[in-house]
Amino acid sequence: MSLCSLSQARVVLGEDAADMARAIAVHPGGRELVCATAKGCRVFKLVYRDFGVHLISREASPLQSVGPQKCLTFSTDGAKFAIGGEDGHLRIFHWQSLNVILDEPKAHKSFRDMDISLDSEFLVSTSIDGSARIWKVDEGSPLVNLTRSPDEKIECCRFSRDGTKPFLFCTLVKGHDVWTMAVDISNWKRIGYKKLSAKPISTLSVSLDGKYLALGTCDGNFCVVEVQKMEVAHWSKKVHLGSPISSIEFCPTERVVISTSHQWGAEITKLDVPPEWKVWQIWLVLLTLFVSSAVLFYLFFKHARIHS
Length: 308
Fold this sequence. Notes:
Layout: E1 23-26, E2 32-36, E3 41-49, E4 52-58, H1 61-64, E5 69-74, E6 80-85, E7 90-94, E8 100-104, E9 111-116, E10 122-127, E11 132-136, E12 141-145, E13 152-159, E14 167-174, E15 177-184, E16 189-194, E17 201-206, E18 212-217, E19 222-226, E20 231-236, E21 247-250, E22 256-261, E23 265-270, H2 279-307
Antiparallel strand pairs: 1-2, 2-3, 3-4, 5-6, 6-7, 7-8, 9-10, 10-11, 11-12, 13-14, 14-15, 15-16, 17-18, 18-19, 19-20, 21-22, 22-23
């Protein structure tokens, strides 16, 4: 299903090509979004009224002249906001005050990808040169560089989301091979790695419950991996034919993903994975077991009385 004809709001950022939106980050609360342009970033408030969505620009001077940004991300609780620039400049802010936590001009050669951990303690960032760094968010300081061999490049990165045993997913390119590796965040060492896609990976995403990992490829396909088994549970091919998938996100309530590309826009895909158990389904099973037990007890009691 395509979303191209279902636009709910449209805003003109400017008349020049430099004013076009290059990346977008939506606040977890769903009421604000940040658009990155060639000049900097602009903040919009989302107002839901008259059966539509209205975007209202708000003042955000610390973001307006930062230049072109490659990566934008909010922490899960929405209290932190980070941007990584084409010039390798990393900035982390408190949200909404935009008070600076970290301002590091030489974090990378140029940003490739970025993510913040579920507890907002760590930020991971990768560079176009294949390096990856871990940062302490609250302290606003670098913690460690992820180890790699000279012929390896770490590209995409996402923290796990289930909250039980936190770890980090990264895509690792070695020659013509692409691997997905897991890193233990207690010591930042590799737990293991597996080849899940033969094609180069353009983006990663983790479902909100942490059970599934989505990998979008540079040729417009994507796969969804069951994290516990690290096995592919769903393949969608030619969703964005010949165009790299620029982003992919899971629906919070259903096993559905929305993927985007510059050529084909947004597409919605229902995943071919086992459905989640709903609360009412669990109670129905328990009620069925209770009734079955009561019936069996009655039959046993009745049978015992007849023979007595």
